[in-house]
Amino acid sequence: MENPGFEMQEDGALSFSSKEAQAKTNKCSPYLQEKQNSSSLLKIFLVCLLASVITTLVGVLVLALVYSGQRSPKKEVEIITVKETVEKTTKTVEKTTDIQFQFLNHLTKSKVFEFQGGAIQWARYRKNAKDYSSDEEMKFGASINNQQSKMTVGTLQIKSKGLRVPHWHFNANEQGFLLQGSAWIGVIDEGANTVVTYNVTAGQVIFFPRNTLHWLKSVGNEDCLFLLFFSTHDELQTLDVDDVFFSTPEDIAARSLKPQGGVEFIRTFKRPKEDQAINLPSNLVELIQSASYVQSPADHVWKYFYDLKGSKEFKFPGGIIQWARYRKGGIGLNKNESIFSESINEHADTLTLGTLRIYTNGLRQPHFHFNAHEMGYVITGCAKIGIIGTGPSTDFNIGVGDVFFFPIGTQHYIKSICDEDLFMILAFSTGDQLETLDMDDYFHATADHILAQLFLKKQEEFKKIPRFNDDQAVNLP
Ligand SMILES: *[C@@H]1O[C@H](CO)[C@@H](O)[C@H](O)[C@H]1NC(C)=O
Ligand SMILES: *[C@@H]1O[C@H](CO)[C@@H](O)[C@H](O)[C@H]1NC(C)=O
Fold first, then answer.
1. Residues near ligand 1 (Cβ within 6 A)
2. Distance CA 455, CA 461 (A)
3. 3-class DSSP string for 17-47
4. Residues 145, 374: Cα–Cα separation, whole Å
5. What distance lies between CA 395 and its chain's CA centroid?
6. Of 6, 47, 110, 258, which residue is most buried, by most CB within 10 angstroms?
7. Origin, by domain of life (predicted)?
8. Which pLDDT band, with edges at 50, 70 and 90, does 50 fall under?
9. Domain boundary at 234, 268, 301, which?
10. Number of domains in the chain
11. What pLDDT does residue 271 have?
12. How many CA atoms lie less than 13 Å away from 377 in the CB half-sphere?
């Protein structure tokens, strides 16, 4: 199945993990020297020099110890400490080179996998380091995999009348947001007991539980553009129905389908040269005599669909949040929305999705999540983002088409810095209720004599931090 855009089967003998690859490029190797500028070259030279000096010292120390025959446990501990220090120093230099790419991926600038009927781009983990098109992509892929993010993201563009052919994913749920166009969706569940079909338009959400068979047909006049989240940080494993068909022995296919003409009929199927993953045959008008796009009843549709754009707007001084998420007991949801809420909660490893609009100069204030990693995609506007984790903290700017990643527990903020509103789609790796704590809330909740002792500052000073009636989650100066 030569299908580089979608296939993500386990690679064979050639593959080696990106960690190993990173380790290779990160030592004082010629690889690295080619790519660094002169100042970091100097740094690396100094680190290498330091390392060799310390290694020599350690060697001398070891020799001295061996020859004097005094290998007391205490001395061994000292040696180990010296070695660790060398490793730590080297690591810090590696990390500060481009730490931001652990959290940032320029998705729209990434490699485009083209098909007759459309294209796909990815921000994902690759088992074989050679499958990344840049070091930056590798940093991001390794980071979401190391953090066990349970998320991968990609864009799927389908030309008008094009079809992402029927397929299923072995190892991930799929939750998508339609950015543009309109599509007709089909979902077939276990035993084909229900076939759910529905139209989706821009601003709405689709959900395909793991291994449900599904298709997406672009039905509007303009191209469709989906942003798709898959609930895995490993390589996505996918099978397309045509690939499976052509891999099934003809007599077995004939026995399964029992067509008129038997195996002779099966032999009339010819496998096209081009990968059909997203197809758009030139003779489509001849092929299709009549198409009907039926809509299943609402209680079926909403298991796999959510009208995010039409859902309740949560307004804050600096912006608006809307959610496609699980709520216990369906609180705040209408009947349709409750069906979706229950549906994502009853499947394992689903995601909470939301859109966040932040007005110019608005701030999604510093906060963190107890129970989810977060990934986001910028639809309009631009922002400055800051992340504080247990490693070195970092901040950087993001613009349209960028993907960002906040590992669970890291404190992060998003400040809208363009004239246009910042508008983003966010995904959180939980199908339960998201748990969040904002910086102003934990400051107010901490006793002021504790703050006084913490910051070595008079208790009464903390009265200067006011409380507001409005929730300041997204605020303005
Ligand atoms: C779905 O979209 C197609 C193409 O725009 C349209 O012909 C059809 O009526 C729509 N179906 C429903 C149920 O809205
Ligand atoms: C539920 O969704 C269907 C379309 O899927 C719509 O026709 C109906 O009005 C919705 N009901 C409510 C209560 O929003």
1. 182, 184, 199, 219, 293, 295
2. 11
3. CHHHHHHHHHCCCHHHHHHCCHHHHHHHHHH
4. 13
5. 19
6. 6
7. Eukaryota
8. low
9. 301
10. 2
11. 94
12. 23
Residue to mutate, 336, 338, 343, ligand 2, most ligand atoms under 8 Å from C-beta:
336
Residue indicated by tokens 């349209």: 400
- Region for residue 456 given its phi and psi (left: phi exceeds 0; alpha: psi -120 to 50; beta: otherwise): left
> Are 334 and 362 in a shared domain?
yes
Structure tokens at 37: 């500028």
Distance CA 121, CA 5 (A): 8
Helix axis angle, 73-97 relative to 38-68, nearest 10°? 170
Task: Tell me the pTM.
Answer: 0.81
- Nearest CA owner, ligand 1 atom 7: 293
User: Which residue's structure tokens are 């409750």?
Assistant: 338
In the chain, DSSP finds a helix count (H) and a strand count (E) of 13, 26
Which of 131, 118, 120, 180 shows the shortest CA–CA distance to 17?
Answer: 131
CB half-sphere exposure, 323, CA atoms < 13 A: 20
Residues 326 and 261 in one domain: no
Per the structure block, which two tokens stand in for 397?
């700017």
CA 133, CA 330: separation in Å to the nearest integer? Answer: 44
Q: Please, how many CA atoms are within 13 Å of residue 179, restricted to the half-sphere of its CB?
A: 19
pLDDT at 186 exceeding the cut of 70: yes
Q: Establish if 237 belongs to a structural domain.
A: yes
Q: In sequence order, which residues have a C-beta less than 8 Å from that of residue 39 and are 6 or more positions away?
A: none
Helix, strand, coil percentages, rounded to 5, for the chain: 35, 30, 40
Distance 431 CA to ligand 2 centre (A): 23
Q: Are both 150 and 229 inside the same structural domain?
A: yes
Structure tokens at 42: 């100097």
Q: What is the pLDDT of residues 68-106, one digit of tens each?
A: 434 333 334 444 444 444 444 444 444 444 799 999 999
Among 235, 269, 301, give the residue marking a domain's end: 301
Q: Which domain holds residue 124?
A: 103-301
